[in-house]
Amino acid sequence: xxxxxxxxxxxxxxxxxxxxxxxxxxxxxxxxxxxxxxxxxxxxxxxxxxxxxxxxxxxxxxxxxxxxxxxxxxxxxxxxxxxxxxxxxxxxxxxxxxxxxxxxxxxxxxxxxxxxxxxxxxxxxxxxxxxxxxxxxxxxxxxxxxxxxxxxxxxxxxxxxxxxxxxxxxxxxxxxxxxxxxxxxxxxxxxxxxxxxxxxxxxxxxxxxxxxxxxxxxxxxxxxxxxxxxxxxxxxxxxxxxxxxxxxxxxxxxxxxxxxxxxxxxxxxxxxxxxxxxxxxxxxxxxxxxxxxxxxxxxxxxxxxxxxxxxxxxxxxxxxxxxxxxxxxxxxxxxxxxxxxxxxxxxxxxxxxxxxxxxxxxxxxxxxxxxxxxxxxxxxxxxxxxxxxxxxxxxxxxxxxxxxxxxxxxxxxxxxxxxxxxxxxxxxxxxxxxxxxxxxxxxxxxxxxxxxxxxxxxxxxxxxxxxxxxxxxxxxxxxxxxxxxxxxxxxxxxxxxxxxxxxxxxxxxxxxxxxxxxxxxxxxxxxxxxxxxxxxxxxxxxxxxxxxxxxxxxxxxxxxxxxxxxxxxxxxxxxxxxxxxxxxxxxxxxxxxxxxxxxxxxxxxxxxxxxxxxxxxxxxx
Length: 621
Known about the structure:
Elements: H1 6-10, H2 15-31, E1 36-37, H3 61-76, E2 81-87, E3 100-101, H4 105-112, H5 114-123, E4 127-130, E5 134-135, E6 138-139, H6 144-154, E7 160-165, H7 175-181, E8 185-187, H8 199-217, H9 221-225, H10 231-254, H11 263-286, E9 327-335, E10 343-349, E11 353-359, E12 367-376, E13 382-386, E14 390-395, E15 398-404, E16 411-416, E17 428-436, E18 445-451, E19 455-461, E20 469-478, E21 484-488, E22 492-497, E23 500-507, E24 512-518, E25 530-538, E26 546-552, E27 556-562, E28 570-579, E29 585-589, E30 593-598, E31 601-607, E32 614-620
Parallel strand pairs: 1-2, 2-4, 3-5, 4-7, 7-8
Antiparallel strand pairs: 5-6, 9-10, 9-16, 10-11, 11-12, 12-13, 13-14, 14-15, 15-16, 17-18, 17-24, 18-19, 19-20, 20-21, 21-22, 22-23, 23-24, 25-26, 25-32, 26-27, 27-28, 28-29, 29-30, 30-31, 31-32
Helix pairs in contact: 2-3, 3-5, 10-11
């Protein structure tokens, strides 16, 4: 069947029509054992003369995204995944193999990335094709900011990222760079030089395999690959082909042409004939009616046009999001006895209900294990009754609770304060956190936990799936000068300056030096001259937007936001602050704010003017 181009169907502005289009196209694809498509393209018609306009919908980003999402949903209803292309800023055909595109972030987000964002969030795309374009001086296929921080971390994309065709272009389309940026596959048959000797490369290869299998598993690929042909029929075809080919070879040796045809030509004729016979047999006996397509009337695990992606569709955030208004208490923690890879969360709502969830890894996060109702006891502790019963004890304004995870047998220790962030475990003397030294090594996260019983552990996070990997442990003692001596698998020294502990160590697996800092009783180091540091994120599923308020001892304050790694520390407000009689703080400046105080925790709300997103910030006195 012949189908019209995207430019033509885009002119319909009809989302339902495009979803039906995708459904029909997907059904034809699965009938021919095809489960992946290099389509649709959602780049922009920057000019009417662009050489790829037939492959794109419109000059409008929102329209392109809505139509692309509808098409992807239609494909998915038949088990077909779509490599949405070309991500990103591949909006002209001339010189597209070498062009460097320069744009500010506002234009990128409003025009050139918006369509892809809509396709990911509303179409639930599980495949993406990166572009040839350079973004500034970085190839798009090797841009971690694009493929990981925006696509996966901000938008919640789960699936495979493949490059555009790398045949003949591998001199600059480097698979080693692509893997580390968040790419998964090269669209290339030969010539790829993958250096798999380092631990980093092997971890990225593991991640890429996981993403590829995720896309395949969420499609009709397994059914398409299944071969249910009877073996006797396959053997019969092989024998028939061999007999007919042999007969043909004998015939050619006995005809009048035998003197004119050399042995090479005769063999060539036989091989071609055998290939034709195999195709004929396949068409007659093996070619099935196709992969069973999904029932068009059955409900699909894809959103309708009116649905918004839910919070659980996004990967687990590395930090707890700000509490919603109906949350009485949020308790967070991890497995004890070296099992801190297992994260656990208990959310107690003001309506008297609770839920307990665990994060096994980034892909298996927020798995609900328990739920029920809670009441407050006379001594201030909380009684949780439901699937299982728990007790949350109260000491010094901090709630603590232990939860045994039934799946793993691991006990998790959770802590939290009403309206505040979770507090460190009571047996922790100091928590030091940091990253690899040097801009290129900040992907490696490092942690040192010093417990009050005189023991310590050193852990590193290679990525979301390989986090909390213990590398060192032992005992520690305090020296006369206030520094700490750590003795164990390796020996370390923790120095003390201005109330902040600092330690450096080299990660043995990667040889990367790491620097970590922290203060006693856990928590991030507070800079000299800082009275209080409040941190938080956007509410209502907008926790990609980070916000910070710094109040200095000289009576001034600044408020900054982090849009992403490249646009962090953007100052939005500044001014002076004073303390009110009730302990709250009044901030006066570009805009006015009030910081409230409860149970030793300061909280405030900030509305980001650029996005309209409300952020909730908190910090300890």
